[in-house]
Design a protein that fits this description.
By secondary structure, the chain is α+β, with helices and mostly antiparallel strands. The protein is 49% helix and 12% strand. Strands 1, 2, 3, 4, 5, 6, 7 and 8 form an 8-stranded mixed β-sheet that branches. The longest helix has 75 residues.
């Protein structure tokens, strides 16, 4: 019972802490309302407003969920690549490895390779993340089926017209062009303090409440256990008293019967 309560409290703490995302340090590429095939890349901006790798595999997944979308799969990023998505920064995908979609080979982007360049790194490694907006993908697919010839520029134009029809759940972006000076071989190994400032307070508060709740549960359990022990002792004492009383009554009865028998013997002897 206690462990079930502890697990529930910790789960609530994690959920609450995951909802606190500092969107002022988040950059979206290509741009707000301009995903390609529903796929867009999310980067973290440091205090100098420069992108840096800041999300491990689990943090990347939670970030997409906090934006109201899902982390993109390999197939979805591959589809976006065929429609013109090209970046110069690795990002986590659903299969727990990082990718860079490249149409042109560059020495400082994707190891001078083209296609969907993959990096099977440790899940604790820090990268960006590719998110997938299913509603954007469905709208763009509908738009492309109405046209006989498709080009990436038309996809961008179609997504721009969506701004007046549907609100976006993505945070503001400071730039629509990726920086090509970042080397994928040496991603950043730390996260800026700004990202956790809002979430840190919530984690502290919820953790304190969780500890208090756990302490209350433990005290209640100890009190209940003591009550059961006392109740058991009282019951045992009552049974012992009843046993002693019954034994005493039986002895008195036996003594009385023995005295009566002696009296009958004496009377018989006197009569004879």
């Amino acid at each position: 019972m206690i462990w079930l309560c502890i697990t529930s409290v910790l789960s609530i703490t994690l959920v609450i802490s995951d909802q606190n995302v500092d969107t002022s340090h988040i950059r979206v590429f290509p741009a707000v309302n301009q995903s390609i095939a529903g796929v867009f890349q999310v980067s973290y901006l440091n205090d100098l407003h420069q992108p840096q790798y800041a999300f491990n595999a689990s943090e990347a997944r939670r970030l997409c969920l906090s934006l109201g979308v899902n982390i993109a799969s390999k197939a979805q990023v591959q589809e976006a690549l065929t429609r013109g998505l090209e970046t110069c920064r690795f990002g986590w995908i659903d299969e727990h490895f990082a990718v860079i979609p490249r149409s042109k080979a560059l020495s400082n982007c994707g190891r001078n390779q083209t296609g969907l360049v993959t990096w099977r790194a440790s899940v604790t490694q820090k990268f960006d993340v590719f998110c997938f907006n299913e509603s954007d993908a469905a709208t763009q697919l509908k738009d492309t089926t109405d046209s006989t010839d498709y080009s990436p520029s038309k996809a961008a134009d179609s997504t721009q017209t969506m701004q007046s029809r549907s609100p976006s759940s993505l945070p503001p972006s400071s730039s629509s062009t990726p920086k090509t000076i970042d080397s994928e071989a040496e991603p950043a190994r730390f996260v800026g303090s700004a990202q956790g400032s809002a979430g840190g307070k919530a984690i502290l508060i919820t953790s304190t409440c969780a500890l208090l709740l756990i302490a209350i549960i433990v005290l209640a359990y100890i009190k209940m256990r003591r009550s059961r022990i006392l109740s058991s002792d009282v019951k045992q004492q009552q049974e012992d008293i009843q046993t002693e009383e019954w034994t005493c009554v039986r002895k008195i009865k036996e003594n009385k019967e023995a005295a009566q028998e002696d009296e009958r013997i004496e009377v018989g002897d006197n009569a004879s």
